[in-house]
Amino acid sequence: MDTAPNLITIGDEPYYTTIAKSIEQFNKIYPEGSIWVYDWGFNDTQKEKLKSESCVTVVDWDNPTYESGLIERGIIAAEKKFRNISYTNYFLNSILNYEYPFAQREKEYILCQKPYVFRDCLNNVQDGPLVFLDGDAILNNSLPVLKSEEFDVGVTLRPHEEIEAAKKRGYYHVLNSGVIIWNCSAKKAQSFVDAWINRMKRCDLPLHEQSSLSKLIEEQNPEIYSEFGNVGKVDTGEYIIDVKVLDCKEYNYNWVEEGWDKSNRVLHFKSGRYENIERYLSKI
User: How far is the C-alpha of 25 from the C-alpha of 267, rounded, in Å?
Assistant: First the structure.
């Protein structure tokens, strides 16, 4: 498509720094594009700065608040504290195999809001490409894949060695949903998101939203993850959606501690990398 793309991102107060940089980069590369920022908890100053950008629409989103009782909130706070201290985390996680179930339940709830955010945004954007970036991901170069007409949805596949290593640990880590590209009409994209939400409701794997997306595609295309660049079809009952598998190293690059160049089109500062975000951003 030749239409200028829309960008959608989500975040809260701790992720304002990367989201502000993400907006700057997107404007530089796609000055005609529009940006949708879903507010999951920015402070008032941050929100006003975002709203001051002429190309940005800020959408309040209340659902990320995880409802829990006083005792559960206390356990969640304790789990997060112990997980962030190296020696207590080593003892609890590595020796006792404690997996912080209460904090994980809260995290799952919040992450599962993502497809609902997409559905809301697709009710408002005009037809044309829509690029989703996690709040800790930033555009580093243009996205030539947007000019392709061979796919409707682009998803990013982890390196095969990473997928196999996760399998040996008992995890199903295939796609990374921190970057998704819709290259079709809003109605087709909504149909795909609805199918994703329905699959998510019956997913019992960790990282429900990400795993259910992987499963939705794989169940109709068993060999699609064998090679980067593969294209498969997902029948939503309304549309046949063409899905393309993109290489994480190009479209969702998170190995930033090893350095990067323009071939890494999207940089993703996930996991512990965000602790050094100011140093990384100074290099972009």
Answer: 11
60-75 tens-digit pLDDT:
987 655 556 677 778 7
Please list, in sequence order, all residues whose beta carbon lies within 8 angstroms of the beta carbon of residue 60, skipping any fewer than 6 positions away.
39
Looking at residue 127, its pLDDT comes to 66
- What lies within 8 Å, CB to CB, of 137 at 6+ separation is 9, 18, 22, 178, 179, 252, 266, 267, 268, 269, 270
| DSSP 8-state symbol, 112 | T
- pTM given for the model: 0.86
- State phi, psi for 213 to the nearest 5 degrees: -65, -45
Q: Where in the chain are the domains?
A: 6-64+113-281
Residue ranges of E strands in 152-237: 153-157, 175-182, 231-235
Q: Which two tokens stand for residue 111?
A: 């992450």
Q: pLDDT per residue over 17-38, tens digit each?
A: 999 999 999 999 999 999 999 9
Which is the CATH superfamily of the domain at 6-64+113-281?
Spore Coat Polysaccharide Biosynthesis Protein SpsA; Chain A (3.90.550.10)
Helix orientation angle between 186-200 and 208-220, rounded to the nearest 10 degrees: 110
